[in-house]
Amino acid sequence: MSKSGPIFKPGPISAKPLGILLNDVFAEAYAKQGFAARELVTRWAQIAGPEIAAHAEPLKMQWPRPVEGQPQEPATLVLRVEGPMALEIQHSADVILERVNRFFGWSAVGKLAFRQAPLSRPQARKRPSPPDPKSVAKVAESLGAIEDEELKTALARLGAAIKRN
Fold this sequence. Notes:
Layout: H1 18-21, H2 23-32, H3 39-42, H4 44-48, H5 50-53, E1 56-62, E2 75-81, H6 86-91, H7 93-104, E3 109-116, H8 133-142, H9 149-164
Parallel strand pairs: 2-3
Antiparallel strand pairs: 1-2
């Protein structure tokens, strides 16, 4: 047996979640937009409710300059709103203000401002409808002698879907 150098055991792996590693980067980006906490953006659907969050998202918070000796004035929350829903969201302003201030635990937001623009997040893609049963049957006839019925049915559905597209 030859003597080679000492054998080193690997130490424990100290992997950290990406969110923790990028925390300072995100905190700085959100602070530039006036958000004291990024949770208003990341948890918007829970705070505003799914109906409102589907058509509006927080863009930034505008804080008024503090006046020495005066209490801090509430901020203006700027929301990006999809075109035709802007009026509906504007009518829900009181509900949104109440929910946001309840989330913060104090009257952090005093009014809302709206910017009409497409939302920045991608819209969920709709699942295509299943193929027409007649076209599935037609494709199944052309498959020939496949003994496994489940396989034949799956291939017929796949063929009909491909032909449709």
